[in-house]
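Two entries, shown back to back:
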Amino acid sequence: MNQIIDRINKLLALGERGGTEAEATAAMQKVHELLAKHNLSLDDVKSSPIEEEDYIKDEADASPRQPWQDIVWTGIAKLYFCEHFKRKYKGVTSHLLVGKPSNIAVVKYVAAYVVRTGEDLARKAAAASESKRTFSNSFKRGFAYRIYQRVEDEIRKAKAGEMTDSATGTALILAPLYDRTKREIDRFMLDDGMKVRQKTTRSSGVTDRDGYLAGRTAADSVSLRSNGVGQHPVAAISGPNS
């Protein structure tokens, strides 16, 4: 398992250093493929020398008044075979993740990268606006909703067999893996006694339409596979044809 994580980290570092979006995306596509093949092998090959991981809960720092970031985290977690929830306990707000350790590591890296990118793009886009704060807030909302939509598209493609093994050219059918992971996480949460509220990704809090649309457009330029971390579908958020 450590060897896999080390390899993933090297690919992620390569993606971040890439001089072009194409280079970053290529690195993250390889990460996604590696994670997908790894999880499929654990499910299909009982003689696999890789030790199966148990599901766990883990947390990361969260901003209590930045709901757009929660949408990003929820989408990235879903892409990489995890579940995300917002947790508030004793005045401390955090991102609560449920999944396998290696997948959670990827989610933390990719989600943090996408949020940083959204913050930076919003700041630059709002510089010329008369109402910088209003524009920026709506920009971030549009950015987050579009990222989530792209995750949904990415998962749909992966389930449809539109992800291939670069070594053999054969399709990697991930529908069983996504479905199995969802069942196992639900079972883990039930056994753990976790109680969660229904989440929503509906558009709300948008007061500047131009900012919102600018955020959606900007999100299409962010690779979910590039600069991502971790495990499972670490393919860039932008799909192979996006």
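entry 2 starts here
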Amino acid sequence: MPNANMANREVCDLIFVDYTTKKPFLNLDFANVSTTELTGESTFAYGGKGYPKRVRFAGEKSGTLTIETQIQTVKLWQLITGGEVKNSAEFVTRTEAVLEAKEDAFSFTLPDTPVAGSVVVYPIGDDCGAEIACEANGSEITVKPDASMALAAGDKVIVYYMKTVSENVKRINVKSTSIPKNFIVYGDTVMKTEDEELLPYRFVAAKCAPQSNMSLSFSNNGDPGTITITCDLLADSDNNILDLILIEEA
């Protein structure tokens, strides 16, 4: 394989290793596109008639690793955002309930115990409109409509409340102070030569810093949503930025 002509038409599988602990953080083997770009700046000394360029100074070497994927994981969100993983969450949920007669009022039971003070009830035909007064005792809700609301047992109402989930949940808590970790990234794919030989190709990004940019799109048509992760390539303590490795198999 002395300087073989070759081409690529396959994505890289990527292993992200925590730069500080040197422990694997994420096996990203589900990307669709992975692009490595190296950049540098040139500055010139000029002199003489016509102000020609005489001497070139090269520096500011850097680059980016850009990944596009339609597959997502919680670890991937954490890698991009630098957020902390929590095992509980609170969020507003909406449901409909049927009123049951209860003395001089009506009642219904929610499927969950709501956060105190979070229950809001509306008539079925007036969503987010005229609020019906209510009291909560655990998951049992008692409503006492005023004279202007003609409610009866069997009527439906719309209910909004804050729900707490503390089992089987992963929440990425992103703060204004959250900063993504730095990683060493190991990539592997194959190159194909003009002689139909497949050559293993590897790269090592010595210090990779994910940018805190993430767009989560949700659509009911077209292609599945794609996340693009852009990482800045930094120099490590030995000034290494990137290794490109081609392996000739015996």
